[in-house]
Amino acid sequence: MDNVNGKNTVQKQPGLLTKLIANDNFGVSIALIILVVAMALFAPNFTTVNNIFNVLLQIAQVGIVAVGMTYVILTAGIDLSVGSIIAFDGLAMAMMMKAGVPVIGAILAGIVVGGLVGALNGFLIAKLNLQPFVATLGTMTMFRGLAYTISGGQPVYTLPQSFDVLGGSIGVIPIPAIIMVVIFILGAYVLRYTKFGRHIYAIGGNEVAAKLSGINVKRHIAFVYIISGVCCALAAIILTARLDSAVPTAADGIELDVIAAVAIGGTDMQGGKGAISGTIIGALITGVIANGLNLLDVAQGPQRFVKGVIIILAVILQVVKKRKQA
User: Fold this and answer.
1) Residue 40 to residues 32, 33, 37: CA-CA distances in angstroms?
2) For residue 55, which of 41, 38, 36 has the smallest C-alpha distance?
3) Residue 21, pLDDT score
4) For residues 314 and 267, what is the distance between their CA atoms, to the nearest angstrom?
5) Rounded to whole angstroms, how far apart are CA atoms 200 and 170?
6) What is the pLDDT of residue 314?
7) Would you state the pLDDT for residue 320?
8) Are the CB atoms for 159 and 99 separated by under 8 Å?
9) Nearest-angstrom CA–CA distance, 220 and 126
10) Nearest to residue 308, comparing CAs of 245, 257, 248, 249?
11) Which pLDDT value is given to residue 19?
């Protein structure tokens, strides 16, 4: 209530519809709903229970890695090495298990390896001041090459059954989808409710101002790449368990799907703005598109073209929205 010319006036509160439209996730949520309706109309068997859970299974790896990528992009960075880390880490774990290392030991070692590769990216970017695109392009090539080297270009298969369980399901619910949901919740909580999350937004919004306010920018940037590496390790675990094998070509091109999920979800590619909730919706959109196009027998070439177009449109919408807000 304000006092204007001696009179009390009550400020009109925005209505529910206005709040919904102002929400950053409103547009992509509507897009997801429209897409699901379209696929239900045109793609055979899209709305069956098995296919719905199949969509969740298919996006599990992308969704988990997209959580780490959201952290990275919020700092105005990028991680092109995610697919190579998944392939290298999956092979490392598979080879350890074949050599007699207990399953739990191999899994923990794989998570550590993912974190160490992420730390290397963080060191190159935060300490040596390399551009994230250049640094992760280099490590992408390095670790894909290492994946071929340690495996001799051959798959490693027939893994312990206790490990393969992680790629299975509980009833009709895929275990990889459960893991993905847990990672979404943890990632969202840290970003929204912790000091570390607030610092990530501050660094992406204005790195110089964040530095002047006392935030250790280099340490935070290094840590988001470690988070990305750990997310890749988790994705490697469920992918390797699903396939009961590890191959040097695993997750080739997954960075396209991951970046698409984050960009479609509304995270600003220049940093400082975005949320895990948007990334969830973005991952679902990419999964629904891929699944629907597969059901419609659309070839991989056109599918990749569509994904590329969607990324461009998502970034264009971000630019238009920024200009309207300026």
Assistant:
1) 12, 11, 5
2) 36
3) 43
4) 10
5) 36
6) 80
7) 81
8) no
9) 9
10) 257
11) 43
Tokens 């974190």, residue located: 115
Choose among 50, 51, 28: nearest CA to 39: 51
* One-letter identity of residue 27: G
Q: What is the pLDDT of residue 11?
A: 52
3-class state of residue 2 by DSSP: strand
Domain boundaries, the chain: 48-252+267-275
pTM above the 0.85 mark? yes
| Among 232, 271, 234, residue whose Cα is nearest residue 254 | 232
Q: Reduced to 3 states, what is the DSSP secondary structure of residue 12?
A: coil
**Contact present, 71 and 228 (Cβ < 8 Å):** yes
Distance (Å, whole) CA 10 – CA 310: 44
pLDDT of residue 12: 53
**Dist CA 165 CA 4 (whole Å):** 68
Q: Residue 158 and residue 76: Cα distance in Å, rounded?
A: 41
* Distance, CA of 111 to CA of 234 (rounded, Å): 7
Distances (CA, A) of 271 to 26, 268, 274, 278: 20, 5, 8, 14
Cβ 137 vs Cβ 80: under 8 Å: yes
Partnered with residue 71 across adjacent β-strands are none
Residue given tokens 């461009």 in the structure block: 312
CA distance linking residue 225 with residue 16, whole number of Å = 38
Query: What are 151's two structure tokens?
Result: 């495996």
Which pair of tokens denotes residue 157?
């298969």
DSSP letters along 148-215, please? HHHHTT--EE---HHHHGGGSEETTEEHHHHHHHHHHHHHHHHHHHSHHHHHHHHHHH-HHHHHHTT-
What angle in degrees, to the nearest 10, is found between the helix axes of 195-205 and 49-74?
Answer: 70
Looking at residue 127, its pLDDT comes to 96
Cα distances (angstroms) measured from residue 95 to each of 101, 109, 125, 150, 234: 9, 12, 30, 9, 17
The low-confidence residues of the chain, meaning pLDDT below 70, are 1-24, 326
